[in-house]
Amino acid sequence: MKRFFLAVIIISFSVFSSANAAVMKNTKPLVELPYTKADQISSVLLTPISIIITGTTESPSSSWINGALAGVSDGFIASYSSLGAPLWNIRLGSNANEIATSAAIDLDGSIWITGATSASVTPNPTAIPPKALNPDNVILDPTAAVSTPLNRIKIWQISSSGNLLNSFEYIGENIINPKKLLVTDSNLIILGSIYDKSSVAGFYLSVSKSGVFTPIIKFGSKSTQINSAISNKDGSITAVGSSGELLLKVKPLSKVDAVTFKISSAGVLQQVARATLKTTSRSWSSIDAGLLQGGRVTYSNKTEAAITKFSALGKPVWNVRYSAKSSALVANGSNSWATYISSGAIKGVPAWKPKTPAPVLIEFGKKGEVISSHTLSAPAVAIAANNEIGTVVITDSGVAFGLVVVN
């Protein structure tokens, strides 16, 4: 009799588990945006009725970005309806080379974009000596302009209807990569990384909405990077990235640790939390509201995507790691979302056994359990979520961007 009841319990548990297991669903883009060169989308923003993407194009022309390429690369911004219909776009280009890396929406509905740009320099032509022989009267070609490294931070302000309102520029000494733009009531805050030969440091830069910059503040000096950030209700900032050096008297615990910074509204580094595993290199690449963070763990023989939900700095509520070929990007909506290139099993999706690595989108519940799972046609490069549209993922196949919406 005991064996009978035990068998019934096992069967019932198996049926319950199967019924609650997530099934991998296929997704298709609402629209595909083709390109011919090394184009990139770096940011996606959502309003209640539209999807706004920003990035960089090197394609000479485009069917979905107005105008022709001005430099080697141009920044751009484009807006689409929740159904994928084009609304407006604007090319952020000049004779210099530009990249657009992050964007944020202000309270008035305007969109602020940051990126980096070079200076276009025309060398002085070598004068022909007055006594030089030139029997054929050959006309020398004008000296071609050359570009400096991307050592300038560029800021654009775009209206909600797609018109350029303002642009500002900060000139730095070294190559600079602004990774995240945050908007406050009166200022813009830019965070990212500065490169100097073989070293890299994180940075904080504040600028007024009229274009007045404060002095740049650096974090670390050898191997510290900032990849993303969010604003907190108290005006402070939570930023994420990686570091292999001493910060606030806290030593690295592995080759490179994933680090989370708390930074005051004035740019003062107040707290550093390190996530580490011995003999690994870790990095946070993404953070969203509610302290949902995504990143990667690199071992000597494998890579894992890491997703963690925190209640406070350094205090995880839940965390998961999956066999992967990429870092995890995250977005927080009514639930938590993450996307990465999966190369192994996913707990909660028992039927998922990929023969080759494949991009996926996973929805998590309040305790980190898998609620839904989706395959993507190409790897994701940006993700965002809101209550009105749902979860939006921008994919990149190498020849076209895809706009995917999951409600």
Low-confidence stretches: 1-19
Question: Number of helical segments?
Answer: 1
Rg, Å, rounded: 24 Å
What is the strand arrangement across the widest sheet?
Answer: 1-28-27-26-25
Indicate the multimeric state.
single chain
What count of domains describes the coordinates? 2
Envelope shape: globular
> What's the β-strand tally?
31
Helix percent reads under 10%
Keywords: Signal
Signal peptide: 1-21
Account of the 3D structure:
- The chain has about 400 residues and is mainly beta.
- The protein has 2 domains: about 35-120 and about 145-220, 5 Propeller (Tachylectin-2, Chain A); about 230-405, no CATH class.
- The protein is about 5% helix and about 50% strand.
- The protein contains 1 helix and 31 strands.
- The strands form 8 sheets. It has a 5-stranded mixed β-sheet with strand order 1-28-27-26-25, with no helix packed on it. The chain has a 4-stranded antiparallel β-sheet with strand order 2-31-30-29, with no helix packed on it.
- A hairpin with a 3-residue loop joins strand 13 and strand 14 (about 185-195).
- The chain is globular, with a radius of gyration of 24 Å.
- The chain starts with a helix and ends with a strand.
Short summary of the structure?
With 407 residues, the protein is mostly beta strands. The protein folds into 2 domains: 37-120 and 147-219, Glycosyl hydrolase domain, family 43 (Tachylectin-2, Chain A), CATH 2.115.10; 230-407, no CATH class. 5% of the residues lie in helices and 52% in strands.
